[in-house]
Amino acid sequence: MPFQDITSDIRAAAPDLRGRLLANQEMAGLTWFRVGGPAQILFTPADEADLSYLLGKLPAEIPVTVVGLGSNLIVRDGGIPGVVIRLAGKAFGEIALEEGDRLRAGTAVPDVKVARAAADASLDGLAFYRGIPGCIGGALRMNAGAHGGETTDVLVEARGVTRKGEIVTFSHADMGFSYRNSTAPSDMIFTSALFQGRPGDQAAILAEMERVTSAREAAQPIKERTGGSTFKNPDGGKAWQLIDAAGCRGLRVGGAQVSEMHCNFLINTGGATAADIEGLGEEVRRRVKDNSGYELHWEIKRFGVAA
After folding, report:
1. By Cβ atoms counted within 10 A, which residue in 126, 280, 293, 305 is the most buried?
2. For residue 234, is it left (φ>0), alpha (ψ between -120 and 50) or beta?
């Protein structure tokens, strides 16, 4: 069932908008799971000023959702009401080196490209981003990390736009980082980030990136339709071990399956719905709780409404 087309209302409220508005745009093709319903409105802003302009004019009752590369999310089968904002293009995809061994990146830049740009500049400390499937916007929101490094270790500041359209800069302290989380306002849309590297040996940095790549390929189902790591590690335990101990390796619900290679990954084996994937995740959570007493919390974000 399609959503009401509100593009004309948005254009009337924001007549100088330069970005692209698409009504009832399918989201499945924009997510790694390849599932989910449409966005009521998908907006791709021309640049930060265009994003600020829309948010400043958009009525407060219209919900706003931000998506990046689609690697760490489930869009539910009924789709996402309101405006879905997807940052893309040159305005949000540039990387620049700055004085003091620093690197600035737009939030649409894939994490792996930040790692590569740092290596090309012989900047150490950012190689861990080679092992994270996603973009910098998501890394800021969830303090993404892998292979011994986290975003909190390297972030200097982040720039973004509030729901009211104000452009602000958050210091590292303002981000409130903790394990796979940030306390920055949930309605903040990050547009760029400044990272601190340190001088390093390029050959050693590239070797570390190769180690990260090899470890990821050997241990994770990266060639499958998956959203990445599904659950956060609870205090005192590892999610994959708890899932395995609960007998969930290979468990299926419809077209969704717990990966045989890595138990903390759910995969779409073909024909899965978002409800299949989310339902499988909830069943895994239930079995782990019953078996070990540990409560797993979703790392993958879930948006939208059920079919």
Report:
1. 126
2. beta
pLDDT tens across 43-83, in order? 999 999 999 999 999 999 999 999 988 989 999 999 999 99
3-state secondary structure of 150: strand
Q: Quick one: tokens of 268?
A: 């779409």
Pick the catalytic residue from 48, 150, 208, 299.
Answer: 299
Are the C-beta atoms of 114 and 126 separated by less than 8 Å? yes
Query: How many other C-beta atoms lie within 10 A of the C-beta of residue 247?
Result: 12
Please tell me which residue in 104, 116, 141, 180 is annotated as part of the active site. Answer: 180
**Beta-bridge partner residues of 110:** 135
Strands 225-229 and 265-268: antiparallel
CA distance 222 to 214: 11
Residue tagged active-site, from 229, 278, 285, 287: 229
pLDDT digits (tens, 9 = 90+) for 182-196: 999 989 999 999 999
Instruction: Measure the CA–CA gap between 148 and 296, rounded to whole angstroms.
Output: 21
Domains of the chain: 7-90 (3.30.43.10), 93-204 (3.30.465.10), 221-303 (3.90.78.10)
Q: Annotated catalytic, 214?
A: no
**CA quadruple 87, 71, 285, 288: dihedral sign:** negative
Among this protein's residues, is 180 annotated catalytic? yes
Terminal alpha carbon distance of the chain: 9
SS3 state at 237: coil
DSSP 77-114: TT-EEEEEEE--SGGGS-EEEETTTEEEEETTSBHHHH
